[in-house]
Specification:
Helix 1 runs parallel beside helix 2 and helix 2 runs parallel beside helix 3. The longest helix is centred in the C-terminal third of the chain and has 41 residues. It is built from four helices and three strands; from the N terminus they run αβαβαβα. The protein has about 140 residues and is mainly alpha-helical. It has a three-stranded parallel sheet with strand order 1-2-3, with no helix packed on it. Helix 3 links the parallel strand 2 and strand 3.
Length: about 140
């Protein structure tokens, strides 16, 4: 788990999907440092923690921390089934977090598309310009 935390902390690795399902992970494996790294990661989009042994208390802590940092997260898919059953409050926390993260993903895609459109417009304008010949007015 330490190696995974290190990967999540670095900006050099563009890990967009991480499947840790059915690995026998417990609260101890994913200590709070994992949640902190996960909350600060702006690249990871899909995380599967299903079929592990995460307690209701750990899931509550994780969802609370993620919601406090949701403004930066792009994690739009978080699978937690077959761990401790989520309470109604935890379901609401998960829903709120995923909604905020997906809004961030959409904003990123919109900004990326806008930038690509702007670049395409500049390239079209540049393609239509002909260089001035020496002696001609620019």
């Amino acid at each position: 788990a330490t190696e995974i935390v290190d990967l999540l902390k670095t900006k050099k690795v563009a890990l967009k999907s991480l499947d840790l399902s059915d690995n026998g992970l417990t609260d101890e494996h994913l200590k709070p440092v994992f949640v902190n790294a996960l909350a600060k990661n702006r690249i990871l989009v899909d995380l599967d923690l299903s079929k592990n042994s995460l307690s209701r208390g750990y899931l509550n802590e994780m969802l609370g921390q993620l919601n406090r940092c949701a403004i930066d997260s792009r994690l739009g898919f978080l699978r937690l089934f077959d761990n401790a059953p989520l309470t109604e409050d935890q379901h609401q926390m998960l829903l709120k977090f995923l909604q905020n993260s997906r809004v961030n993903l959409l904003k990123d895609r919109h900004e990326q598309n806008s930038t690509e459109t702007e670049i395409e417009s500049v390239q079209k304008i540049a393609a239509n310009l002909t260089p001035s010949q020496p002696g001609e007015p620019a």
